[in-house]
Amino acid sequence: MPQTPTQPAVDLSDVQGGIFKDYEVEFEKHLFFAIGSVDAGRAFVRAVRPWVTNAKAQEQAADTRLNLGFTWPGLDALGVEDAALASFPVEFREGMAARAGLLGDNGPSAPGQWDPPLGERKLHVWVLVQAARPEDLTGRRDEVLAMARASGAIELICEQDGAGFGPAHAPAREHFGFMDGIGQPGVEGVGCPVHPGTGTPREGGGWVPIPVGCFLLGYPDAYGRTATRPKSDVLRHNGTYMAYRKLEQDVVRFRDFIDANAHVVGGDKELLAAKMVGRWRSGAPLELAPDRDDPALAADPQRNNDFRYFDDDRRGEKVPHSSHIRRTNPRDRFLEKHAGVIDPGAHRIIRRSKPYGPWLPEGAEDDDERRGIHFRAFNANLMDQFEVVQAVWTGSANESFGLSSDRDPIAGSNETMGPESRRLQATFSIPRGQCVATLYDLPRFVTVKGGDYFFVPSLKALDSLGAPVDAPERGTR
Ligand code: N7H
Asked: Which three-class secondary structure state does DSSP give residue 351?
């Protein structure tokens, strides 16, 4: 049954665009700035503010789309009042690099190895510009840089480019060759269709849409709680958080691993790749198409998310427990009847990612180019959502199934872990009939190259953050 878009209960003209609905354009630039003085910072926000795309008008947006976000040191550099600053959640105040131990950013993914200045405290402002045509992108970027110069002490300290692979590959494809962006939360009250399987599974069957409060501050979340932090109504209302991660992909290593290990699934390389992700490269879910790819299923939003794992795939014979999508969205794992105690809707993230670096043609030798994705996760609660998914669901071993050294092969840390006397190498287990095929020494296919947590305020809050410090409307309360 086609699902109708839910009526917006939120004033979308006050919410930044690209969060609930992707901009669906090919090119992007991430511009990161450092603020040298409160006045310059506020002047810059005022200058850029008219270009910020709002969620209501994003379809009509001309040529380019633009988002604006701030780290906690960035809000401090803008002169946000101490009481409001101090009331932000601890994970946002600390920033992503300081959370590395918890997130599993170790070995080559440790902050000391990141591309400078990503993760450094001097990163204050994030400006994302997106466009369908490279010339529009460059034009807007140059304008933003001119605004920074005119504002005074604002310095561009880092620039990152992203782009789809063009018509030769489907636009949403990433470097390992998978369609990306299919499993997204179906959110209530933002005017987007809620397709079957995108909400929270109900005990007796069916799905309920995810409350908008899981993604925007100011509304009840999955547990009925409405965020009270930061302690500034203007800043808080209709704001959200974004976890940005620059994730480098080792495509040659991934392809070699598939070639070398496909024998564990009868020599079918595509099947092994699908077992690691939980979807075929087309995007068809393995749970519904366990033996062969089904591109028609992949392309049908009424069906491509409409599945659960536990009722008929408890052992993981179709979708292994450690596959990327079973870990990052366990769906019915936490229903009461499966001894779950949490609301799975409370731990979802909205992903908006774009590749960087050139596509490596199939069969090509390593070309030493850097490639990966600019990963963005939007959520109202970084600790309960992004951090639970990254640290607990992808990063930890899967003790409850006896898979004590298994990891998410895509997004987990594959470093050897445990005490010196009992080192555990990362494994990936594929149940087959009565047996389990275990792949040992899972290499690292994805390395974190940087990232941070950003607050993405409402349009009204941006007005307040751009107001001169002595202006009466400088409202952060
Ligand atoms: Fe993942 N990939 O291309 O292999 N991801 N991911 N991811 N991911 C998903 O459903 C990928 C990463 C999630 O609702 C698919 O869109 C890559 C991180 C979630 O069923 C594919 C990287 C985190 C889902 C990939 C990467 C997540 C998901 C299937 C890093 C969270 C939805 C297509 C380079 C911390 C699950 C789709 C659901 C799906 C890939 C990273 C989370 C193909 C290459 C770091 C929640």
From this structure: strand
* Whole-number Cα distances in Å, 154 to 68, 239, 280: 15, 24, 45
Stated as kind and residue range, the H or E segment containing 245 is: strand 240-249
Pocket probe for ligand 1: among 169, 180, 270, the residue whose CB has the most ligand atoms within 8 Å is 180
Contact 313, 287 (CB under 8 A): yes
CA of 239 to the centre of ligand 1 (A): 24
Report whether residue 329 contacts ligand 1, using a CB cutoff of 6 Å: yes
> Is residue 395 a contact partner of residue 412, using CB atoms and an 8 Å limit?
yes
Measured distance CA(271)–CA(290) in Å, rounded: 9
E strand or H helix that includes residue 373: strand 372-379
Contact 74, 120 (CB under 8 A): no
- The residue whose CA is least distant from atom 18 of ligand 1 is 411
pTM: 0.95
Q: What are 386's two structure tokens?
A: 């992004």
373 lines ligand 1 (CB under 6 A): yes
Tokens linked to 414: 């594959």
Ligand 1 pocket, 390 CB below 6 A? yes
Instruction: Determine which residue's CA is closest to atom 7 belonging to ligand 1.
Output: 411
Tokens of 44: 């810059």
pLDDT tens for the chain, residues 1 to 477 = 445 555 568 999 999 999 999 998 999 999 999 999 999 999 999 999 999 999 999 988 779 999 999 999 999 999 999 999 999 999 999 999 999 999 999 999 999 999 999 999 999 999 999 999 999 999 999 999 999 999 999 999 999 999 998 766 665 689 999 999 999 999 999 999 999 999 999 888 899 999 999 999 999 999 899 999 999 999 999 999 999 999 999 999 999 999 999 999 999 999 999 999 999 999 999 999 999 999 999 999 999 999 999 888 989 999 999 999 999 999 988 877 666 667 778 899 999 999 999 999 989 999 999 999 999 999 999 999 999 999 988 877 665 556 668 889 998 777 766 655 555 678 899 998 889 999 988 899 999 999 999 999 999 999 999 999 875 544 443
d(CA 404, ligand 1 centre) in Å:
22
Q: Is the CB of 243 under 6 A from ligand 1?
A: no
Residue of the CA atom closest to atom 29 of ligand 1: 180
Distance 353 CA to ligand 1 centre (A): 10
**Rounded Cα distance, 284 and 274, in Å:** 9
